[in-house]
Amino acid sequence: MIVSKRQATETDHEFARSVHHRAYRDVIERQYGPWDETEQDRLFDAAWVAAAHEIVLCDAVACGYCRIECRDDAIVVHELVIDPNFQGRCTGTRIMESVLKDAAKRAVPVRLQTQLVNRAANLYRRLGFRERGRTDRHILMEWRR
Predict the structure, then answer these.
(1) What is the dotted CATH code of the domain comprising 3-143?
(2) Which terminal CB of the chain, N or C, has fewer other CB atoms within 10 Å?
């Protein structure tokens, strides 16, 4: 399996929103209550900027999206969203391993946050992330070499 990324375009908006909704519905319902499609559409649309995102590909098939910011002092993973049909296949792991390799080379930490009930926190812990704090909604995590 080959995992890669490409720059998102405006034509990826509907695909990314669909992936977001499939990937987050369970998390949102467990953490916040009933799913409100209109509200989730509004939140997604407000946050989506194609130029800031990349589409994740698994064997050249679009399977998710990410927004990873490379700052001078850290790499910040704002979003890594994988379609549930592609979860459990190491797709997210391979993206994160690439991020960690880049961070190690640059000698900077990697920071992210995840919803309190998101099982992706287990992936981040397995990769060596440590909890550095919590809000009422998120676990704040950091990886350092």
Answers:
(1) 3.40.630.30
(2) N
